[in-house]
Amino acid sequence: MEITLKNLKPNTTYYYCAQALCTLAIGRADWYKSQVKSFTTSPE
After folding, report:
1. First to last CA, the chain
2. C-alpha atoms less than 13 angstroms from C-alpha of 11 in its C-beta half-sphere
3. 10, 27, 29, 37: least buried by Cβ within 10 Å?
4. Nearest alpha carbon to residue 42 among 13, 10, 14
5. Residues 15, 40: contact at Cβ < 8 Å?
């Protein structure tokens, strides 16, 4: 999976996490969720 972010504001902190649903052929499904991460864009 790949995500591209565009038009981010300078000197701003963004927070994100990822979620995925894994479904097995036997009918079982599990949710997976990452920890919350952050990054700060550089000043202009």
Report:
1. 29
2. 2
3. 27
4. 10
5. no
Cβ-contact 10, 44 below 8 angstroms: yes
Give the pTM: 0.68
Query: Residue 11: is it exposed, middle or buried by C-beta count within 10 angstroms (0-12/13-18/19+)?
Result: exposed
pLDDT surpasses 90 at 2: no
Phi-psi region of 27 (alpha: psi -120 to 50; beta: other; left: phi over 0): left
pLDDT digits (tens, 9 = 90+) for 4-36: 999 999 999 999 999 999 998 888 999 999 999
DSSP state of 10: T
